[in-house]
Amino acid sequence: MRKTLALTAMALGIAGLGAATAHAETLTVDGNYASSQACDADGSHGSFSAGGVQLRGEDGWQYRCDQGDDGLWYMTIFR
After folding, report:
1. Which of 67, 77, 62, 60 is nearest to 11 (CA)?
2. For the segment 60-74, what is each residue's pLDDT rounded down to a tens digit?
3. Which has more confidence, 54 or 51?
4. Which candidate, 13, 7, 2, places its Cα nearest to that of 79?
5. Sign of the torsion formed by the C-alpha atoms of 31, 66, 27 and 63
6. pLDDT the model gives residue 11
7. Distance of CA 78 to CAs 58, 68, 70, Å?
8. What is the pLDDT of residue 21?
9. What is the 3-state secondary structure (H, E, C) of 16-63?
10. Contacts of 11 (CB under 8 A, 6+ apart)
11. CA neighbor of 58 nearest in space, from 72, 44, 47
């Protein structure tokens, strides 16, 4: 379920990125991480797939994990 939500969020974000190239490319992926370690475990793979598009660390994509006001951790992918 968490992966499905993440992929949906990324696919929607990628569609928006193509329409607004002047803006920074940033996607907030998911808010279902209970700890920073869980978020980091998913982010450290360095490769993300959304809507048939491969986002790779080699292409400049990076991630960070930020804690929200609700106590959950959110992964943001950016370049």
Report:
1. 77
2. 888 899 999 999 998
3. 54
4. 13
5. negative
6. 58
7. 13, 17, 22
8. 46
9. HHHHCCCCCCEEECCCCECCHHHHHHHHCCCEEEECCEEEEHHHCCEE
10. 50, 51, 53
11. 47
Q: Which has more pLDDT, 58 or 10?
A: 58
Let me know: does 63 contact 23? Beta carbons within 8 Å: no
Fill in the amino acid letter for 51.
G
Q: Within a 13 Å sphere around the CA of 53, how many CA atoms are in the beta-carbon half?
A: 16
Task: Supply the pTM of this predicted model.
Answer: 0.59
Q: How confident is the model at residue 58 (pLDDT cuts 50, 70, 90)?
A: confident
- Are the beta carbons of 39 and 65 closer than 8 angstroms? yes
- Does residue 76 contact residue 22 with C-beta atoms inside 8 Å? no
Lookup: tokens for 21: 């190239």
